[in-house]
Design goal:
homodimer, 116 residues, 56% strand, three-stranded antiparallel beta sheet, Jelly Rolls, mainly beta
Chain lengths: 116, 116
């Protein structure tokens, strides 16, 4: 088994367009022997956002803390801690933080997708 | 896309051996169109525990809140909110709560495993 404190994993910083104020970490991936799907964690700082994009693969998201908005079909939908989000492949999406606190979410992808 | 508040999903209660004080919910699964892996959430109440078992498939776990112990190789290892746990297939495991607060974890399995 492998146990990791997420905050001790060195993050990759995304702070230029198309993302701002974003830290990404691979928590469980190929390097850990996970062959079917990959768990990442993203922290979005105040005023930060993920890229607006779509891709072939799906996301399974759980919002660990904070609150923000999810771009879906041309609208910003409020989301918050304790919610799960399923984004099927080829659906355009973007998350942004709407508060002073970090917005932290777990986001899983299948193993044929880029890990980060 | 599908957005769900986890607490609004009707839980399955496990309160007889081999599990006690345990609620399980499927957050993102086959019924949602998720074909590669399944996200569940488990709440372990005070003094509760999951079954001690092993199986072919892996678990990818993220501890959302609380603190407890994970049985691993004959020992109880402390675990807490903010930690990720990878349990490869065929490794015996069990979680138990060690506090007065619920121990809440996200646990993902590949799509060839039972969803709950």
């Amino acid at each position: 088994m492998i146990i990791k404190n997420y905050s001790k994993v060195i993050p990759t910083i995304f702070d230029d367009e198309p993302a701002k104020g974003l830290k990404g970490r691979i928590l469980i991936g190929n390097a850990d022997g996970a062959k079917n799907f990959c768990m990442r964690i993203f922290e979005i700082n105040k005023n930060g956002y993920t890229p607006r994009h779509s891709h072939d693969w799906e996301h399974e998201v759980f919002i660990h803390s904070g609150s923000g908005y999810l771009y879906e079909n041309g609208e910003w939908v409020p989301v918050k801690s304790g919610q799960a989000v399923f984004i099927p492949g080829n659906e355009e999406h973007q998350f942004k933080n709407s508060s002073d606190e970090p917005f932290i979410m777990i986001c899983l992808v299948p193993s044929n997708a880029p890990e980060l």
